[in-house]
Amino acid sequence: MTDFLYCYPPLYPGTLLKRYKRFFADIELLSGEVVTAHCPNTGPMTSISTPGSLVQVSQTDKADRKLRYTWEMIQLQEEGITTWVGVNTAMPNRIVKLALEQHVIPLERYDQIRSEVPYGKDKKSRVDFLLADEENASEIYVEVKSTTWGQGDLVLFPDTVTTRGQKHLRELTDLLPGARAVMLYFINRGDCTYFAPGDSADPVYGQLLREAIGQGLEVLPCRFEITPEGIRYLGLAALQL
Q: Where is 99: in which H helix or E strand?
């Protein structure tokens, strides 16, 4: 038995040769074979796409997939500390749902979990999770953002200008004070114990986040340890504003 929220299928180690066109990464497997893997991360991947780094990839046999391999994580070595960092941005929502189902994230009083629920102006947006407590007729809106940009023991979000992220903050703020709204940051590495907005990358986002907190937005910087075997929840990082 382990305390993993999620266990990976067998992964294949290799070395990153280069990432290009956002969605592609050339990787040399231990066998010496060079493969082109899907890079499921549209962001700049600040400090986590250095050629020569060790990586782990998954493999699929699906006939409709053009690329057999998917880049899952990369290993960083900083000041003698080795850390695996998650690359696959499709994983955080999947892991958060598992964590919500097991009630390990500190959000109380809900018995229903719904995903991708329309909300916001004219219901044109979708919140990642809507938690409901039928008995007390209460709801919690939860938006999830994955972050990997580390500076020592501090992790920041975002690492680039994100108009989409700004929009999500505004929409969550519009729910207040009539409903509970939560911004959950999925810290996709286990070595960072502090969280702060990435003001140098997107000062507007940082301003919006602070304003939203002042109006009642709840912020949960959730730490996760990433390993080739699985992912485990580590608790909350300290918030630095």
A: helix 91-101
The pLDDT of residue 230 is 98
State both tokens at 7.
């266990």
Q: What is the mean pLDDT of residues 32-41?
A: 97
Q: Report CA-CA distances (Å) from 123 to 120, 137, 138.
A: 5, 20, 19
- 3-state DSSP percent of the chain in helix, strand and coil, to 5: 15, 45, 40
In this predicted structure, the answer to whether residue 1 has a pLDDT above a threshold of 80 is: no
CA distances (Å), origin 154, targets 21, 106, 240: 28, 21, 9
Q: DSSP E strands: which ranges in the chain? A: 6-7, 12-20, 24-29, 34-38, 54-59, 69-78, 81-86, 112-119, 125-133, 138-147, 149-151, 154-157, 180-187, 194-197, 218-226, 230-236, 238-239
Strand-pairing partners, residue 197, are 157
222 torsion bin: left (phi>0), alpha (psi -120 to 50), beta (else): beta
Residue 90's φ and ψ, nearest 5 degrees, are -80, -15
Cis amide linkage into residue 106, ω under 30° from 0: no
**8 Å CB contact between 197 and 149:** no
